[in-house]
Design brief:
Blueprint: E1 6-10, H1 16-25, E2 31-35, H2 47-63, E3 68-71, H3 74-87, E4 92-94, H4 96-106, E5 111-116, H5 118-123, H6 125-133, E6 138-143, H7 147-152, H8 159-173, E7 179-183, H9 191-198, E8 203-206, H10 207-221, E9 234-238, H11 242-253, E10 261-262
Parallel strand pairs: 1-2, 1-3, 2-9, 3-4, 5-6, 5-7, 7-8, 9-10
The protein binds D-glutamic acid.
């Protein structure tokens, strides 16, 4: 009766920002979340490695009977989405396409900035997705490798984070962008700092919220949405250190997490 869970995965805890939005949009859906905490970070790893991990995780999620897979990690979406869609018959939704669409809808000046991990920026997935929607939009990208550790340290509004953000964002702002895509799971937690660095004229696009909208549209279009009026159940799996995930996850999900299970990924 469409009560099968949605599978969501990320390199670690960051994808919980996407899960939070899916929970908000679709409160009756069951969700199985997998965080690949044994292999985090994906942002500095090769396409080959991230794709191998992603295929392994998708197989695990399928064993949990999921009706859809959400690749909540920008780097995994950039590197592995095509492979996952080719290999698996169920709907696979990444975060880049929805983020790119929201950015194109928002820009008036047709100048968009994108910030993300090294892997996401080097893949040029956001510029390609934006060009596919509107070829006249100019995209300026910047890898921001210091942001993920700062967020994981909990330095969300620390002076150091403000300084780092100014360094990263100033060259993009100088290109007269009017829209900035937060192309990494961790960056929605830096909204205060990023808004200060970008200034009031630049609209911040949160891929997490845009992705939840896409998940909802796809489930309803396919007639696979869970019946309204029930409360979804949530399960959490990681590949390492479940206690750490449980403690740090609250900040990302906006609510307490319990019962995180560790599983071993055979082939990775
Ligand atoms: N989840 C990753 C992303 O959105 C950030 C953390 C990592 O590098 O693994 O790109």
């Amino acid at each position: 009766m469409n009560n099968e869970p949605i599978g969501i995965f990320d390199s670690g805890i960051g994808g919980l920002t996407v899960m939070a939005e899916v929970m908000r949009f679709l409160p009756s859906e069951n969700i199985v979340y997998f965080g690949d905490t044994a292999h985090v970070p994906y942002g500095s790893k090769s396409k080959e490695a991230v794709t191998r991990f992603s295929v392994e995780i998708a197989n695990f999620l399928l064993s949990k009977n999921v009706k859809m897979i959400v690749v909540a990690c920008n780097t995994a979406s950039a590197f592995a989405l095509e492979t996952l869609r080719r290999k698996f018959a169920l709907p696979v939704i990444g975060v880049i396409e929805p983020g790119a669409r929201a950015a194109v809808e928002s820009t008036k000046s047709k100048r968009i900035g994108v910030v993300g991990t090294e892997g996401t920026v080097q893949s040029r997935s956001y510029p390609a997705a934006i060009a596919a929607k509107n070829a006249s939009v100019k995209v300026f990208s910047r890898a921001c490798p210091l942001f993920v550790p700062l967020v994981e340290e909990g330095w969300l509004t620390h002076d150091v984070t403000h300084r780092v953000a100014r360094e990263y964002i100033a060259p993009l702002a100088a290109r007269n962008i009017d829209t900035l895509v937060l192309g990494c799971t961790h960056y929605p937690l830096l909204k205060t700092v990023l808004r200060a660095a970008a200034g009031p004229a630049i609209t911040l696009i949160d891929s997490a919220a845009a992705t939840a909208g896409e998940v909802s549209r796809t489930l309803h279009k396919n007639g696979r949405a869970a019946p309204a009026g029930r409360r979804g159940k949530y399960q959490f799996y990681v590949s390492d250190a479940p206690e750490k995930f449980q403690a740090a996850g609250r900040r990302f999900l906006g609510r307490a997490i319990a019962g995180v299970k560790k599983i071993t990924m055979e082939k990775c």
